Amino acid sequence: MPFDLVIVEIEHALGPGVDFVAEPGMGLVGRRARSGGAWLGFDRGALGDSDDGLGRRVAVIVALPASTFAGARLEAELVGGWTTGDATVLVATLPGGPRPAPDLARVAAGLDGEATWIDREAAAHEARRARQRFRERASHARITGGRAWHPSGALPPDVARFATPHSTAEYSLARLPGRFLRGLEGLLDDDERVLYWVERPILTDVGLVERLRSRIDRRAALLLLTDRQLLWIVDHAQPDRFLSDWGVDMELLPIERVTATQCVEGPGIIELAVAVGRAARRYALPVELRDEVRVMADLIERFTPDAAGARPRRCYEVKPVDFDWETGARYGQEAEARSLLDVARDDGELLAFLFSPRRPGLRSATALVLRPTVVEVLTAGRRSTVPLDDVTATQLTLSPLVGRIAFGRPIALAYPAPLAAHGAALVRLARKVMANRS
Questions:
Q1: What is the distance between the alpha carbons of residues 423 and 338, in angstroms, rounded to a whole number?
Q2: What are the chain's domains?
Q3: Is residue 361 packed enough to be buried (19+ CB in 10 Å), middle (13-18) or exposed (0-12)?
Q4: I need a labelling partner for 201 at 20 to 30 A (CA). Which of 42, 150, 234, 326 fits?
Q5: pTM
């Protein structure tokens, strides 16, 4: 793009015209007509990816043959600008269009008091400086404390997005139910980033026959992509009139293990099929969300080996999780926990150990053991083992009723809900180990 061509996003359409709104699956839809008095032939906008030195985008007045609409993005040619010393408003026109009168541009920009006209070269120089400031601010806006994926502060998203380094998906997390956010807090690393998510709302308009036959899953669900994993979060129980928050069931795939994606549309639903080696996981969402699901599929494809090519692969630091003896002492079974832990340590390198105490319905204490290459379930005199390379996905239940972890059918452990944080820590570490082995 030549130095004097820029991308401008219209913020205020000043003349008569039609206002458009983006609708899922329909594109831009005209919603209302604007009427107005005298129009000077300009719309107000802002220079894309720019910083005026105060965290704001640089203002641009664009000369047009007809007024556009808020949100329109235009390729425009800089012709000059007005500067007041404290602020600069650039003036542009469509490529090849007539040069607008500077005095009319000043009136359309709403500038009062002293102002100085700058020529095209000076305007282009100011645009380059503004883009450079934006890139510098973005490069330094690293979050070094707390949860990088969780926006905090009092600024509304439409203002904060110009001053903080969070994605649109991260700013939108506040709209999610609290039970989903609690699940994310357990499974996301502090420096992990949320890239995109699609929510399936609770289905309430279901006939009596379908309810009795349980043919339709009415539970709310969330499909969420980070820079490290794909998460599928579903309500633990069907919604009822007594308690809507029974916790959530979660499934996670390390993004490094995904090899391909495919969208499959059926009656009333669209499924996202995610291939992990020779196996695949499928996630069903309402067909009305087909556009969002396809965006999700495109984003996941960028992490596949074919798209990544020969780029260096990220390797995670794997630190063993120390066993908390309080988990056994809380249930008066510290000796049993110590016995199982000694057996696990004698059999090789140990990364994580989750103790599930003996209780009604479970005659013997059990433990889930994570090693560098396998995951095991230990009980007195019995062991079940599965290689991590054979695990397609990890399931985790975070509910006030029960906690549960599963690495495929033979490796599953139920444990009391108060030990949920210990279970989530093991699953987080297992994801890193599985990713490093991909």
A1: 18
A2: 5-138 (3.90.80.10), 172-308 (2.30.29.30), 326-436 (2.30.29)
A3: exposed
A4: 150
A5: 0.65
Count Cβ atoms below 10 Å from residue 230 Cβ, excluding itself: 26
| Over residues 314-324, mean pLDDT | 88
Higher pLDDT, 141 or 47: 47
* Amino acid type, 383: R
- Per-residue DSSP letter, 262: E
Q: Which two tokens stand for residue 250?
A: 């979660």
- Largest Cα separation within the chain, whole Å, is 89
DSSP at 362: B
* Overall average pLDDT of the 216-241 stretch: 84
Q: What is the pLDDT of residues 108-143, one digit of tens each?
A: 888 888 889 999 999 999 999 998 888 877 665 554
The alpha helices in 143-260, defined as continuous H runs, are 157-160, 168-171, 178-187, 208-213
Residue type, 367: A
Neighbours of 172 (CB within 10 A): 16
* Least confident segment among 40-49, 213-222, 417-426: 213-222
Which residues are CB-contacts of 112 (< 8 A; sequence separation ≥ 6)?
none
Report CA 234 to chain centroid distance, whole Å: 16
The 10 Å Cβ neighbour count of residue 189 is: 17
Query: Which H helix or E strand runs over 199?
Result: strand 194-200
Q: Is pLDDT above 60 for 54?
A: yes
- Across residues 15-21, what is the average pLDDT? 87
How far apart CA 205 and CA 314 sit, in angstroms, is 45
Q: How far is CA 364 from CA 333, 360, 396, 433, in A?
A: 11, 10, 22, 29
CB distance 90 to 60 below 8 Å: yes
Which residue is associated with the tokens 């005659």?
Answer: 363
Mean local confidence (pLDDT), 388-410 = 88
Strand, helix or coil at 418? Answer: helix
Strands 88-93 and 59-63 come out as: parallel
Q: What tens digit of pLDDT does each residue of 147-170 get?
A: 677 776 545 555 555 545 667 788
Q: What is the CA radius of gyration of the chain?
A: 28
